[in-house]
Design a protein that fits this description.
Shape: globular
Structural class: alpha/beta
CATH class: Alpha Beta
Largest sheet: 9 strands, mixed
CATH architecture: 3-Layer(aba) Sandwich
Number of domains: 1
CATH superfamily: Survival protein SurE-like phosphatase/nucleotidase
Radius of gyration: 24 Å
Length: 292
């Protein structure tokens, strides 16, 4: 049992899954996304989480795909109530999580579930994804969090069942500190589940230049097919082979190997900074008086 979660001691008379449901059915679960409050994937994820607790849906009022980990700081957030425990917010996915964990909900959630995203979030996509960023925000605030995405054309009900299985395990086992789970479900019926590392892919021809009716140029980002490196052991490889990819993501972005290799950089740069700081400052250049 991981730190931060209560010990579960189910009655012997109940099967394991029923014990989990009985224990957590009164817990509060936050469901959000980046496709907007009316997205079918959001509804499917909320339905999948219902057996596990009291589900609150708080999501952006409109699509926020590829918004990353943005927070709204220049205007107030206004939740709009659509129905019981279902709200739309004029902000980003991270706004929704921050708002809910820090006070909008009647109590702190035990789980943040983000998705089901319409389209995969594989490899480097996680740095752009509003879905993954919502789970990151939950993790930063100390709430176990998962992000769930579905390859285009896949079945949201299947993705919902996968999400429930992963969520149940997270609720029982907990997660390591500063760690979230990024779940990608293939477009066809899954052959199984694999735990993977992030792959690496880039999109060629990202910038598309066009002209408006007045001849002024404008640009579209995101064009071109993706390219990727070796797939063995990666999330992209698992999904390509028809498996669900579950990737643990850690919020410590430090490159510890590079930190060790660059140990001598510190003393060299420190010495150079001290030498530069000890030199007398150059007098400011005189401005020439303007005639006339």
């Amino acid at each position: 049992m991981k730190e931060g979660l209560p010990a579960v001691e189910p009655p012997e008379c109940l099967p394991p899954n029923e014990c989990v449901v009985a224990f957590f059915r009164m817990a509060l679960i936050l469901v959000t996304n980046d496709d907007g409050v009316h997205a079918p994937g959001l509804a499917a994820l909320a339905d999948a989480m219902e057996p596990l607790g009291e589900v609150w849906v708080v999501a952006p009022e409109r699509e926020q795909s590829a918004c990353g980990h943005a927070l709204t700081l220049h205007r107030p957030l206004r939740p709009h109530r659509w129905s019981e425990r279902r709200f739309a917010v004029n902000g980003t996915p991270s706004d929704c999580v921050n708002l809910c964990v820090l006070g909008f909900l009647p109590e702190r959630p035990v789980l943040v579930a983000a998705g089901i995203n319409h389209g995969s979030n594989l490899g480097d996509d996680v740095t752009y994804s509003g879905t993954v960023s919502a789970a990151m925000e939950g993790t930063l605030l100390g709430v176990p969090s998962i992000a769930v995405s579905l390859v285009d054309g896949g079945d949201v009900a299947t993705a919902g069942r996968v999400a429930r299985l992963v969520a149940m395990r997270v609720l029982v086992e907990g997660l390591p500190p500063k760690t979230l789970l990024n779940v990608n479900v293939p477009g066809e019926a899954p052959r199984g589940i694999r735990f993977t590392r992030l792959g690496h892919r880039i999109y060629g021809g990202k910038v598309v230049e066009q002209a408006d009716p007045r001849g002024r140029p404008h640009y579209w980002l995101g064009g071109g097919p993706p390219e990727w490196e070796a797939l063995d052991g990666t999330d992209m490889g698992a999904v390509h082979d028809g498996f669900v990819a579950v990737t643990p993501l850690h919020l410590d972005l430090t490159n510890h190997r590079a930190l060790a290799l660059m140990g001598d950089w510190g003393s060299a740069l420190d010495g150079q900074l001290r030498r530069d700081s000890s030199r007398p400052a150059s007098p400011p250049a005189r401005k020439r008086a303007r005639k006339g």
